[in-house]
Amino acid sequence: MRAICFCLSLTAGLCVTVALSGAADIEVRGSVQSGRRPEPNAVVWLEAPSAPRTPQARRVVLDQKNLMFSPHVLVVRVGTVVDFPNNDRVFHNVFSFRDGKRFDLGMYPVGTVKQVTFDRPGLSRIFCNIHPQMAAYVMAVDSPYFGAADRAGEFRLPDVPPGTYPFQAWKPGGPTLTGSFAAEPGKTLDVQWP
Ligand SMILES: [Cu+2]
What we know:
The chain is mainly beta.
């Protein structure tokens, strides 16, 4: 009798999986706040390590201009190649030496591009050897469902299959917030740091 029950529950589980994968993907919208203010430097992602791999569809750029990196915070899926163009008027020497991806691109002149593949999950802190005020963050996540907040503290996660996911939210200075989110049409993911 126990064996039959197991088979039935397994079949039910398969039916649920089929029903979920048959539902249309949705765009998850949400907001991030620190206290009561929008947090424009936050990134949010749903954990989905078994989500299908797809080839990188577009260039992802961390620009150097006016002695600044742009954007200040970048979130990418693990395996993404990021372009580091020098669109400034001076040489830069971009590097990351602590956590995440470690690299040193050396001095390179205006008008040239170097690339880095962020091939494992985690946070990389990006600096320039010449200009100590230049700093940026690259968060590599093992998920295709991620987004960065805009100036209003709002973000979008496109093409999410409906279902329940663990989520994480990070901002410079942290801490990383975690929780569970049921992605379904019309439901927003609102995250708040105290
Ligand atoms: Cu520099």
